[in-house]
């Protein structure tokens, strides 16, 4: 029998593949080599000043104890009002909106609370890393469909999604605008997903954390708005990307009551509640700062263009970025064949950190030429990154 105090890692088997995240690894490398961190997607500038002030005030006024389990009423009301205004979907703030510790907790709680051990969840590769970990936490089983190259971007392989669905499938997780490929799924792909979800009677979790950050006239369509979908969809979003506060860890779920109750059952025992003073501030921002967000979107559009050009000049084959914080680039023209090795060497080689797309997939061999860069950085940070990318030539 193995010892409980010595020997190999004591981590349970189902979580051993998730021992460390790529973001922690690449950020550590960036710090060690004083590299410009275009790896982990977090802004290096603050959100709307008035929103920050509301949080400071909330602390000063003593809103520092446990808020209500579902979240402060003003934030739940702001989320419901915002969804109704922008998407036309109605959620009751008292029973159909839940505030969570970021989108990350929302996703884990939704899988834990709605998927039985042994049931299957379909992800679309490449997929945001926390989805696979949430499925493992729940003792559920991961199946994958995939995006495929399409012109200078990517498209959903609808057949792969159809083939991934089995009688054990409970849920599909969809993310658009997409991390890491920066794909904004067109309506036709969303309709295809909706038709499969309806015909197989599946739940859908739609991760919309980049819902505001779309470029070049692309439109974000929420799956919850398509025919037959409202009743089966769990919508997840977050203040992190919309208001440049990734450290506030304030997210939310909108879903019909019978689904939200499952998410709440799990959420209560993950964290009980989310951080108190941030919630009135995010409510304020949803009600008053969408103009600021539109400015952010325009700025990011410009930075996306700037980084895309720099990557092309650095010799990469650059993919189209329709939304999110990211642009992906193929390393083949640089004579490179292994994106993971390329990214591990890049901080020391030219002083830039990036993330290999292969870590977001179950088939790294099919995705080993793509590297994800983020452009959600201050102008001076991005300019330094751009200048260093030219050292690749
Ligand atoms: N989903 C996606 C697609 C993300 O990129 C991220 C992180 N940026 C999250 C969820 C997690 O969001 P949060 O920081 O609100 O937990
Ligand atoms: N979502 C961000 C990214 O993809 C950061 C996530 C994280 O650090 N866990 O880069």
Considering the chains and any ligands shown, give keywords for the structure:
393 residues; eight-stranded mixed sheet; binds 4'-deoxy-4'-aminopyridoxal-5'-phosphate; binds glutamine
| Average pLDDT number | 96
Large-scale geometry: globular
Instruction: State the major sheet.
Output: 8 strands, mixed
> How many β-strand stretches?
14
Distance between the termini: 56 Å
Q: What is the helix tally?
A: 13
Distinct bound molecules: 4'-deoxy-4'-aminopyridoxal-5'-phosphate, glutamine
Structural class by secondary-structure content: alpha/beta
- Strand numbers in spatial order across the main sheet: 2-9-8-7-6-3-4-5
- Rg, nearest Å: 21 Å
What series of H and E elements makes up the topology?
HEHHEHEHEEHEHEEHEHHHEEHEEEH
Unreliable segments (pLDDT under 50, ≥5 consecutive)? Answer: none
As a percent range, the share of helical residues equals: 25-40%
Q: In percent, how much strand structure appears in the residues?
A: 15-25%
What do you see in this structure?
The chain has helices at 22-32, 49-60, 73-87, 102-114, 129-137, 158-164, 187-199, 239-242, 257-270, 278-288, 290-313, 339-350, 379-389, and strands at residues 36-37, 97-100, 120-125, 141-150, 153-157, 169-175, 203-207, 233-238, 251-254, 317-318, 326-330, 352-353, 355-356, 370-374. It has 393 residues and is an alpha/beta fold. Helix 4 (102-114) crosses helix 9 and helix 11 packs parallel to helix 13. The mean pLDDT is 96. 4'-deoxy-4'-aminopyridoxal-5'-phosphate binds at residues 41, 102-104, 128, 175, 179, 207, 209, 238, 240, 246, 251.
């Amino acid at each position: 029998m193995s010892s409980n105090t010595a020997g190999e890692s004591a981590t349970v088997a189902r979580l051993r593949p998730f021992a460390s995240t790529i973001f922690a690894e690449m950020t550590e490398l960036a710090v060690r080599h004083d590299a410009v961190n275009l790896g982990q997607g977090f802004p290096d500038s603050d959100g709307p000043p008035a929103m920050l002030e509301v949080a400071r005030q909330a602390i000063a006024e003593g809103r520092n104890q446990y808020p209500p389990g579902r979240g402060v009423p003003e934030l739940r009301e702001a989320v419901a009002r915002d969804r109704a205004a922008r998407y036309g979907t109605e959620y009751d703030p008292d029973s159909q909106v839940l505030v969570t510790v970021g989108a990350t907790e929302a996703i884990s709680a939704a899988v834990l609370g709605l998927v039985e051990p042994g049931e299957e969840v379909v992800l679309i590769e490449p997929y945001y890393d926390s989805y696979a970990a949430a499925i493992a936490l729940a003792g559920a089983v991961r199946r994958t469909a995939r995006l495929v190259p399409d012109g200078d971007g990517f498209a959903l392989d609808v057949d792969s999604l159809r083939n991934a669905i089995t009688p054990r499938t409970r849920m599909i997780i969809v993310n658009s605008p997409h991390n890491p490929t920066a794909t904004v799924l067109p309506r036709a792909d969303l309709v295809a997903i909706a038709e499969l979800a309806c015909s197989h009677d599946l739940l859908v979790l739609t991760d919309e954390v980049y819902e505001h950050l779309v470029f070049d006239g692309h439109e974000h369509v929420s799956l919850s708005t398509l025919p037959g979908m409202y009743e089966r969809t769990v919508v997840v979003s977050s203040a992190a990307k919309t208001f440049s506060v990734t450290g506030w860890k304030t997210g939310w779920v909108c879903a019909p009551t019978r689904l939200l109750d499952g998410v709440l059952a799990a959420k209560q025992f993950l964290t009980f509640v989310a951080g108190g003073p941030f919630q009135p501030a995010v409510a304020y921002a949803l009600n008053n700062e969408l103009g600021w967000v539109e400015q952010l979107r325009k700025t990011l559009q410009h930075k996306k263009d700037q980084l895309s050009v720099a990557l092309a000049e650095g010799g990469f084959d650059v993919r189209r970025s329709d939304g999110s914080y990211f642009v992906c680039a193929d390393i083949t023209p640089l004579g490179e064949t292994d994106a993971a090795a390329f990214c591990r060497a890049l901080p020391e080689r030219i002083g830039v950190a990036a993330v290999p797309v292969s870590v977001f997939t179950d088939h790294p061999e099919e995705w080993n030429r793509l590297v994800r860069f983020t452009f959600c950085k201050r102008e001076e940070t991005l300019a330094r990154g751009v200048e260093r990318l030219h050292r690749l030539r």
